[in-house]
Design brief:
Blueprint lengths: L7 E5 L7 H15 L3 E5 L5 H7 L8 E4 L2 H11 L5 E4 L3 E3 L3 H19 L4 E8 L11 H9 L3 E4 L2 H7 L3 E2 L20 E5 L9 H14 L2 E5 L6 H11 L2 E3 L7 H13 L1 E6 L2 H9 L3 E6 L5 H8 L6 E3 L5 H13 L1 H31 L2
Parallel strand pairs: 1-2, 1-4, 2-3, 4-6, 5-6, 6-7, 7-8, 9-10, 9-12, 10-11, 12-13, 13-14
Helix pairs in contact: 3-4, 4-5, 7-12
């Protein structure tokens, strides 16, 4: 395998600063990339807490941080003229928009020069926000060209792959991050709830269903805060229903909050949420994902379907409280099968490691 001195890897690694889920998938990809060299990370204005979490379990001496896109892109372009260069696009969600089109266009010279020197570009586990037949394609050209100039393309859902027309499917990197022995079900006494602050608050019927399901399963509902901006609405939801609440205090670091949330998921039989990475994190810690919400959302189901799951994200807007409660209980009883699917998703993610290792080793051998 390549020695660290052989590669300079330019990795776009920005994310939502108040979101535990946004850092974990980038950290997981970073660990794979770092096996091949020094990583030059574009982190924008990320907080120290975000960066500490991103660099956890990595070699910090083999990382260089860039705070502006211009300085990072210029360094990447200049280095693409030489050997031992890699460009790695940000995993996670992007949009077909003027903003993303501009930044993809600015990286096209580096990609073109890199191809001339057999220096590869990697796009791994990317998703297009709202990808589908109705996607506005006015800004798609530079994004499509960037994908076609990449040596490796994998997508978090089929709709994104179809829109860009190149590459394969890969589960989100977050499916291969966990702390717990997921087989252990004993001691799971909680039903974790975490809902987005930017959606309408759950109805009385939805909350009643959670209470009924928790009672039938012998669980205690608790509202968990995985995204800091959800703290206030989560506290209000818990107070309204008499549920336990675990927030994200100002003096708690990003990494400490992730560990806290994972510990709560280890004690939970279910996670009920409309946040993708709450369901992914819960599952990797052994809790059953129940994506049940009262608004329109296809993101959760598309991403779980690409990872080999069925019907994880469902709008229950017109469902009765009794039917929602029944669905929560039914989902809880499917835990064993879901854990089998999770292991398959984890192995699929690790096959992406193999693909990246193979690509970077083979191109290094030819440099």
């Amino acid at each position: 395998m390549d020695t660290p001195s052989r590669r300079s890897i330019y990795f776009w690694a920005t994310g939502q600063d108040d979101n535990v889920g946004d850092v974990l998938l980038r950290r997981r990809m970073l660990r794979t990339l770092q096996r091949h060299g020094v990583c030059h990370l574009f982190v924008d204005q990320a907080s120290p807490g975000f960066i500490d979490s991103l660099l956890a379990e990595t070699d910090r001496d083999a990382v260089k941080l860039y705070r502006t896109f211009g300085s990072w892109a210029l360094a990447a372009t200049l280095h693409s003229l030489g050997r031992g260069w890699v460009l790695a696009y940000n995993p996670g969600e992007i949009k077909v928009s003027a903003w993303y089109a501009k930044f993809h266009a600015l990286l096209l010279p580096a990609q073109l020069l890199g191809r001339l020197r057999s220096n590869p570009t990697i796009r791994a586990a990317v998703g297009i926000h709202g990808a589908g037949p109705d996607t506005d394609l006015r800004w798609a050209f530079p994004i499509r060209l960037a994908a076609r100039l990449s040596a490796l393309n994998t997508w978090r859902n089929q709709a994104s792959r179809d829109l860009l027309g190149v590459g394969d499917l890969q589960p989100d990197w977050g499916f291969d991050e966990n702390l717990a022995d997921v087989e252990v079900a004993a001691g799971r006494t909680l039903l974790a709830v975490t809902m987005r602050a930017d959606r309408p608050e759950p109805s009385d019927e939805w909350c009643a269903a959670v209470n009924v399901a928790a009672d039938r399963l012998g669980l205690t509902p608790i509202v968990v805060t995985q995204v800091r901006r959800d703290h206030s609405t989560g506290a209000a939801l818990a107070a309204r229903n008499g549920w336990r609440f675990d927030g994200w205090s100002d003096d708690t670091s990003h990494l400490d909050q992730e560990r806290r949330v994972r510990t709560l998921y280890q004690a939970s039989l279910l996670v009920v949420s409309d946040r993708l990475h709450a369901l992914v994190m819960g599952l990797t810690e052994g809790a059953v994902p129940a994506g049940l919400f009262e608004h329109s959302d296809t993101k959760i189901d598309l991403h779980f379907t690409a990872a080999g799951f069925s019907n994880v994200g469902t709008s229950v807007r017109d469902w009765s409280s009794a039917l929602i409660a029944e669905e929560i209980v039914r989902t809880a009883h499917a835990r064993e099968a879901l854990l089998v699917d999770m292991q398959a998703a984890r192995e699929h993610v690790r096959s992406a490691d193999v693909a990246i290792d193979s690509l970077l080793s083979s191109t290094a051998a030819g440099s």
